[in-house]
Design brief:
Elements lengths: L1 E18 L5 E19 L4 E6 L13 H12 L7 E6 L10 H16 L6 H11 L3 H6 L2 E5 L4 E4 L6 E7 L6 H14 L16 H9 L2 H7 L1 E2 L2 H7 L3 H10 L4 E4 L6 E5 L2 H14 L4 E7 L5 E5 L2
Parallel strand pairs: 1-8, 3-4
Antiparallel strand pairs: 1-2, 1-12, 2-4, 2-5, 5-6, 7-10, 7-11, 9-10
Helix pairs in contact: 1-2, 1-3, 2-3, 5-8, 6-7, 9-10
Bound molecules: cytidine-5'-monophosphate.
Catalytic activity: 4-CDP-2-C-methyl-D-erythritol + ATP = 4-CDP-2-C-methyl-D-erythritol 2-phosphate + ADP + H(+)
GO molecular function: 4-(cytidine 5'-diphospho)-2-C-methyl-D-erythritol kinase activity; ATP binding
Keywords: ATP-binding, Isoprene biosynthesis, Kinase, Nucleotide-binding, Transferase
Length: 308
């Protein structure tokens, strides 16, 4: 039996370029791994099977499309294992379809858990390549910490970061589809007359002020630099998110932004006490289903328990 712990992410900067011929968008994506995370336990089994526990377990698809199942099959195929046998149990704490890369996290965790269970010892660069095949956000879940993601988000460069930052995540009722949010971003750009193609939108780049705030461990400077080009699209599709963002800043958060493609909203707090206060105020506000205080950065997917 092998248990892997894996973090969720928030994008402290999500710069979205024009839509590429392959349908993806070039990004300047600064990923930040937070302690809110899932656990995936791999045990020997027949074929690839899944189960899931947690408050949102009913919303997790347990079919072959789940990234954890796809990860197990991809790793087996890469090593020429004809008949992979594994049962993957997901302890789910990351909001489902929430913009925190929870499905991607489970894919990364399954790669690592199966690698250990099957004794494959796959080198990290190969695991990162397999992860990129599974999805744009999966490599970062293996790496953790803070990293700049270029391309569609999969080309990662670890970034220097000092200290610990304190976050609150407000979980919405129901998810948002990532492709739908990117399409809405394109639609809003077309509607504004700017256009949405590669030729219309400048290639995004990491903001030097944001990188300096991370390197210095300065939450006030980071709060001022937080930016998400998908936020307007997420709020356009789910206008009630504006109330959630407002409730968190009213409660004293340094800044608020939509996490990735949403609908989870992220709030930066000045310390752990402020984060606990903001989380309590958000839970009482009626503008979200629940709210969690957490911190980061934390490492990427790692084995936390093995037994024979
Ligand atoms: O890579 P992944 O399968 O996670 O992406 C899900 C969807 O999000 C893509 O099919 C695409 O619609 C959108 N996407 C995008 N540009 C990116 C990453 C994702 O348009 N850089």
């Amino acid at each position: 039996m092998v248990t892997v712990r894996v973090p969720a992410k928030v994008n402290v900067q999500l710069g979205v370029g024009g839509v590429r011929p392959d349908g993806y968008h070039d990004l300047a994506n600064v990923f930040f791994a937070v302690a809110l995370g899932d656990q995936v336990t791999a045990t020997p089994g027949e074929g690839v099977t899944l189960s899931c526990d947690g408050p949102d377990a009913a919303a997790v698809p347990l079919d072959d499309g789940n990234l954890a199942a796809r990860a197990a099959r991809l790793l087996a195929a890469h090593h020429g294992l004809a008949d992979p046998g594994v049962h993957l149990h997901i302890d789910k704490a990351i909001p489902v379809a929430g913009g925190m890369a929870g499905g991607s996290a489970d894919g990364a965790a399954a790669l690592l858990a199966c690698d250990a269970l099957w004794g494959l010892d796959t080198p990290l660069p190969v695991l990162l390549e397999l992860a990129a095949e599974l999805g744009s956000d999966v490599p970062f879940a293996l790496l953790g910490g803070v990293a700049l993601g270029r391309g569609r988000g999969e080309l990662l460069e670890p970034l220097p970061v000092a200290g610990t930052f304190h976050w609150v995540f407000a979980v919405a009722d129901g998810g948002l589809s990532t492709p739908a949010v990117f399409r809405e971003c394109d639609r809003l750009r077309e509607e504004s007359g700017l256009g949405s193609s590669l030729a219309d939108v400048p290639t995004p780049d990491a903001d030097p002020a944001l990188l300096a705030a991370l390197a210095e461990g300065d939450p006030v400077a980071l709060a001022a630099a937080l930016a998400n080009d998908l936020q307007a699209a997420a709020v356009s599709l789910r206008p009630s998110l504006a109330d959630t963002l407002h409730a968190g800043t009213e409660a004293g958060a340094l800044a608020a932004l939509v996490s990735g493609s949403g609908p989870t909203c992220a709030f930066l707090a000045k310390d752990a006490d402020a984060a606990a206060h903001v989380a309590a105020a958000l839970r009482a506000s009626g503008t979200c289903r629940t709210a969690h205080a957490t911190h980061g950065p934390v490492p990427g997917a790692r084995v936390v328990k093995t037994s024979a």
